[in-house]
Amino acid sequence: MDSPVLPLTVPDPADATELSCDVLVIGGGTAGTMAALTAAERGANVLLLEKAHVRHSGALAMGMDGVNNAVVPGRAEPDDYVAEITRANDGLVDQSTVRQTATRGFGMVQRLESYGVKFEKDEHGEYAVRQVHRSGSYVLPMPEGKDVKKVLYRQLRRREMRERIRIENRVMPVRVLTHPEDGRAVGAAGFHTRTGEFVVVRAGAVILATGPCGRLGLPASGYLYGTYENPTNAGDGYAMAYHAGAALTGIECFQINPLIKDYNGPACAYVANPFGGYQVNRHGERFVESDYWSGQMMAEFAAELASDRAPVYLKLSHLPEETIGAVESILHTTERPTRGTFHEGRGHDYRTHDIEMHISEIGLCGGHSASGVRVDAHARTTVPRLYAAGDLASVPHNYMIGAFVFGDLAGEDASRYTAYEGELDREQLAAAHELVYRPLRHPEGPPQPQVEYKLRRFVNDYVAPPKTGAKLSLAVEAFDRMSQEIAGMGARSAHELMRCAEVSFIRDCAEMAARASLARTESRWGLYHERLDHPERDDSGWLHHLDLRKSPSGAMEFTARPVEQYLVPVPEFAPPGGPERHLGEVDLVPVATAGPRDTAPAARPHTDAPAPVEVPAVAPPHPRLLRLLSLVEDSPDLDALGPYLDDRDPAVRAAAVTALGETAPTGTGPVLAARLRDDAPLVRAAASAALRELVEVLPAEPELGAGLREALAVPDTAVRSAALEVLRALRLGDAGLYGGALADTSVEVRVQAVRALVSVDAVAELAVAAADPAREVRVAVARGLAAVRNPSPEPLGPLLDDTDPLVRGAALAALAGTGCPADYATRAEAALGDPAWQVRSGAATALRAAPAGPAVPALAKALADANADVRKAAVLSLLVHRADPEARTALAGASDDPDADVRAYAARAGR
């Protein structure tokens, strides 16, 4: 008979579990894991606290399809990136922080790659950076982005790291502890989210890496956890930094994103745009004028949604089948695995339906807008020995790479300090204890979901833009009232205590957002801070950071801080300099409030309770699987995993292969290659995935190469494709091997063979593949002939006469990379009259490499093409020829084109 579960009781503060460390890292997501690794590598004893489990926590655990801000040498310049972020944030940046990401980001990409994170590369092993915005090529796809968190966890569990990094999962800090005399950070107080025990930590330095406040506004669905951002990010770090005395900045600059209508996930233009997708209104017109995904772009997006040209779509239906399949393979696995199910449930398909888009709820996020804890170029906050990194820190548009960079900076700087051994402030401990456990004193109080829903509904009603002083003042009054309701929430379990503490963080962030929005009496950042009562941007008075602090009396007070002098000049903005303006507390706008209602609302009609749903019994997990999962935590070697890899049960073998991919001990490569020949499809699939994931860290040893060659005979398309991909990436094959794979029965394998032939510059073999019966292969050959190290236009000749328009279009576009001599330029000019727009677009692209004499007149005529993508290709080619006066005249004429992309690129002729 089961023993009864005893109710949770309020623990005595004197019974707290006490921990000590040199560096305390709060949050085990993107920035936190990197901070812990760097601090440990520099000799510090690190304690990593995570309120969930580090293996699966943080926004990164939800999957990542690519890096938005990779400044790769040869493809982008740091100064250009700094200037672009300055423009995207309307001039309000500390360029020294943005420049850290710009200059250190590529080194971080290489560091992550050494851990096993896979970034997309071309056939020669160069980074396949894409241009998504109209200026700058910074987007670096991650084909196996769903596994990044697993790779980081593997690093944390390396034996040498385990000696330095102590991980405490299910521990949630609620307050940073500071020294009562000098205010420096000396630790934190919190509790265990499973047992409820009180936990106190002494530390030499504290790094906050708790992510954004994604659970601020209420999604259109009304579901508390259906947020655009990871819903576990409830503003914990914002509140802890504020109560520790740190300055926060830009809190009035909200995060608002485009998303899929009725599905709180990104529409993923970053993935779709390089494949040919784009955002349009219901007439199919591109309407976005802004060059960068910013508040201004969101303002244009919102205006289109509010017009008779709505709805707004991410257009994919015009793309060929193979391209749509490639987009699906990314969007339905890496970024949000549920989105394929969502579309299927509606009977929608990218081939027949474009993706309806909408706008997310508001949130606070430094990494995607600008609101966060104020930090300098070393991730230091204004509180000594307190650091902030990732989406919590105010480094505008910092994204994932910036989170890693600032986690690294914080870990490096904090590693100088050793554990604090003095007494901890009793008043601070008592306040933290009260915050955590007060819901246990009145378990019958309002439940957390009810109170949180109400709080966030007020956020939507009064704080979400467009903003007014009256609405923001009503918001402040509502949040003041709700302090008492929040203090009265009831809880019975440690999990409910965690949720109640999160509501207190959300309330703090909501009040900060409302008061900061009141204090900035102008409009800036487009939709992010649109004040209807102050509609103009005021650079003379407000090209200032708005800093927020907790005053000695406990009130929120503000300072207008001049923008730091730019390291990279941006002509549109001129920081005024001068002294800070202390604004003090913000004044509320007088507003009328409604009195109580005359009568109570009518009781809801009684309805019969629905019949209980019968849940089918689930078989218990296999005992050997449980033992294997336990073993993985200790980073086992091959000998320990051997019995599981040879288990008679395919499920156990597959789990062992997955464990091998997570731990990657010496000798992993050949073992995985051998498992490609396993009898069970489940095991082969696991081995294929692990090899692709680990390709950057596996040594290119002959035994691995031999195993992969053997796998090319396996009657499993996915295995043969994976084997070819890894052979190519590790340079373990040759033209003969890859050329033989062109006879494979699978189109997927033959495409991989083409990529492999490009990697060894096997032009003769590629020319043979130009006669392949599959269109996808011939398109890959056309692109590949332009990607070899010494490309020549002659081998493209047969493909220019191909019967398929997509192949002809690809071959013509490839001429831009191989060179377009006079005879081919004549063919490209003729192709501008082809019935297929893809061919006309390819022809316009080809003329980019042709002599200006024949190219410019033909391109000028193409500016009248009915298809916007053809006109866009013509403009981009004319920009190459802009030294020609006729080209400049044609570009000037395109400045009023009805398509936003064409207009934007044409405008560059004057720069």
TrEMBL record:
UniProt-recorded name of the protein: Fumarate reductase/succinate dehydrogenase flavoprotein subunit
Keyword Translocase in record: no
Domain Fumarate reductase/succinate dehydrogenase flavoprotein-like C-terminal: 454-568
Domain FAD-dependent oxidoreductase 2 FAD-binding: 22-395
NCBIfam families for this protein: PRK08275.1, PRK13800.1
SMART domains, alphabetized: EZ_HEAT
Keywords: Flavoprotein, Oxidoreductase
PROSITE patterns assigned: HEAT_REPEAT (PS50077)
